[in-house]
Amino acid sequence: VVFAEIFLAQKVFPDLVAWAVAGITINATLLLVIIALDSRTSDRSLSESRRHSNRWLRVKRGGSIWASDKTTDHSVRRSLVLGGLGPIAWRQAINAKRNSDRVILVFLAIAISTGPLVTSAGMQLTSSGTLGILYFLIAFVIPRTLVCDFRGELARIEHYKALPIAPWRICAGQLMVPVLLSSAIQLVMIASTLPFLDFTSAVILMALTAYILPFNLLLYGLENLVFLFFPTKLVPVGRVDFDFLGRTLVDFMLKTIIIFTAIGVARVAGLMAQQATGELWFSFGLTSWLALTVIGLSTVPLAGYAFRRFKVSETIA
Predict the structure, then answer these.
(1) pLDDT on residue 317
(2) Residue 242 half-sphere exposure, CB side, CA atoms within 13 Å?
């Protein structure tokens, strides 16, 4: 308005002079604000650069860039002991709350909107394409961004090596938090899809919720097992890191083969139990669940073996 009045002034005084004074005052005020802000720019730039540098160092030591924002905050209470599992699980829970809270909220939002989005896009929830997308999200995207286990503790594994408890207990404590968090996200995703399914599909999907915990135990057990045998960074180096892309692809394919093999073994065990008990679906569900749980639990001692043979000096150097 001020500059428009300056250009459209009919008289030099008082119209042009008054509006010109107002325009000069605005420009002078803006100049003073710019100078005041510029005096703070150097200190703020240095502090931001230091923060990003420290964050990048944490990423290079192991961990996702999504989960490497801050490392210190007020704790709530002391954890339960639980034979040594409690403090380790509590540490990972604190890390998840401090560093991955935004990631968890994003995944919860995706889980809540899965059913409405898939239905509005005209896709069938029971189709193979939709199931493939959901499997990719559950088995690849979530574990890669929700890092609150050994994969984010590469620089601190030497401290875990010094703990006077069995390696399998350390591994069990590391797996508790990511397994429970992923299970909670998947349960929310299932709840969001139930209103859009027919009765038969909804009953089958609700029955599959019993397999969520053993499935995630197997998934994160494999993630940590592979990491302990082949400790690699979770972020690429440079714009196009073909070595990182190749490792990621092979890693995902290997874990997919193992997961589907375990599901197949659990299904065969369930079918055998069903035939032996006279076609009872309860026996199929219980036996297949037990088989998948045993396979998932077997990753814990294997991860303990990998942790025991993990050479900190060679890896950190």
Answers:
(1) 47
(2) 0
Distance CA 66, CA 110 (A): 16
What's the longest Cα–Cα distance across the chain?
A: 105
Q: What φ, ψ does residue 241 adopt, rounded to 5°?
A: -105, 95
Pair of tokens at residue 10: 């009919």
Among the listed residues 299, 263, 35, the one whose alpha carbon sits nearest the alpha carbon of residue 131: 263
Short-list 28, 4, 27, CA closest to 15: 4
- What letter would DSSP give residue 138? I
Q: Rounded to the nearest 10 degrees, what angle do helices 199-208 and 167-193 cross at?
A: 170
What is residue 137's DSSP assignment? Answer: I
CA distance 226 to 255: 9
Q: Which residues contact 281 (CB under 8 A, 6 or more apart)?
A: 274
DSSP H stretches of helix in the chain:
2-7, 17-60, 85-99, 101-120, 128-136, 142-145, 157-161, 167-193, 199-208, 212-229, 242-276, 281-308, 312-316
Between CA 273 and CA 28 the distance in angstroms is 85
Ramachandran sector of residue 75 (left: φ over 0; alpha: ψ -120 to 50; beta: rest):
beta
* Nearest in space to 88 (alpha carbons), one of 149, 20, 9, 162: 149
Reported as a single tens digit per residue, the pLDDT across 297-313 is 999 999 999 888 887 76
For residue 13, pLDDT over 70 is answered with yes
